[in-house]
Design the sequence.
C-alpha cells in the first residue's frame, strides 16, 4: 500500500500520541510484595508482606527514619551530622545492638528479624521500590562514612550481592503509620563480627518507582525473644540425650 506524504505525517502523529498515552512497561522486580501475604527469597534472605496489628509505638523500636522524594537513602547511627536523608531525632535514628534484634525460626532456619514501615501517598502513588539493603556489623554504634565506615565495619549481607536486585512494595496494603509493611529475615549465621548493627537502605530508583509520601522507617519488635533458640534438630537430640541418661540411671538401679 502506498501512503502519501501527508498521510504518513498523520500516521506518525497518531503513533506518537498513542505511544505517549500508553503506560510505559516496567521491568519486573526481583521480588514483588504487592499482594497481601506475598513473600519470597532474595540472596538467602526471606521477605514477606505484613500488616501486623501490634507494631505501633511502644511495641517496636525504630532505629532509622529516611525521608526524601523521589529517591532516598540512609542508615542508622549515633553519629551527627547524618550522611544522607536520615532524620536527626535520636529517638528514630540511632545505634542498634545485635542483642536487640529478634531471632525467629522459619522452616527450621534461624533469622534476625527487621521490620520496615513505609509511608507513601495513597492510590497510584502507593508503590515504592526498595533498591538496596546492606547490613554491617561493628564494635561501635557511632560510625559514619558509608560505604567503608573508615574500615571499622564488616558487611555481612547485601541484597545485590548476586546481581542487581530490588523489591516492589505497596503502601496501600497496610493501615497507616506504625502498621509495618514488610519483615526482612536475614540468616542468623551471618551475624558474626561485632555487637552493633548498621542497616543501609536505598529507595525509589528502580524503574522510577520513587517515594511520594513522608518517611520510611526500619525498626525491631520489642518483646520478641532475642536469645539463640535451638533448631528443631538440636531440640530432638536434647530430648534423645535426656532420655538416654534417664535410661542409664534406671539400669543402675536395677
Sequence:
Amino acid at each position: 500500500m502506498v501512503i502519501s506524504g501527508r498521510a504518513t505525517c498523520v500516521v506518525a502523529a497518531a503513533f506518537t500520541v498513542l505511544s505517549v498515552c500508553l503506560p510505559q512497561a516496567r521491568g519486573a522486580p526481583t521480588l514483588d510484595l504487592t499482594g497481601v501475604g506475598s513473600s519470597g527469597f532474595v540472596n538467602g534472605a526471606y521477605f514477606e508482606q505484613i500488616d501486623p496489628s501490634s507494631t505501633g509505638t511502644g511495641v517496636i523500636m525504630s532505629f532509622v527514619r529516611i525521608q526524601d522524594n523521589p529517591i532516598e537513602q540512609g542508615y542508622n547511627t549515633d553519629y551527627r551530622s547524618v550522611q544522607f536523608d536520615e532524620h536527626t531525632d535520636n529517638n528514630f535514628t540511632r545505634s542498634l545492638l545485635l542483642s536487640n534484634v529478634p531471632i525467629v525460626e522459619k522452616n527450621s532456619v534461624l533469622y534476625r528479624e527487621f521490620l520496615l514501615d513505609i509511608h507513601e501517598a495513597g492510590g497510584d502513588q502507593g508503590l515504592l521500590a526498595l533498591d538496596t539493603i546492606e547490613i554491617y556489623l561493628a564494635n561501635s554504634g557511632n560510625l559514619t562514612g558509608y560505604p567503608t565506615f573508615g574500615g571499622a565495619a564488616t558487611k555481612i549481607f547485601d541484597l545485590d550481592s548476586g546481581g542487581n536486585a530490588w523489591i516492589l512494595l505497596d503502601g496501600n496494603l497496610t493501615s497507616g503509620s506504625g502498621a509495618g509493611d514488610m519483615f526482612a529475615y536475614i540468616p542468623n549465621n551471618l551475624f558474626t563480627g561485632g555487637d552493633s548493627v548498621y542497616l543501609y537502605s536505598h529507595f525509589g530508583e528502580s524503574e522510577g518507582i520513587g517515594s511520594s509520601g513522608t518517611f520510611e522507617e526500619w525498626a525491631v519488635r520489642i518483646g520478641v525473644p532475642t536469645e539463640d533458640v535451638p533448631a528443631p534438630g538440636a531440640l530432638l537430640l536434647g530430648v534423645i540425650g535426656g532420655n538416654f541418661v534417664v535410661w542409664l540411671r534406671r539400669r543402675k538401679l536395677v
Notes: The first strand starts at residue 31 and ends at 32.
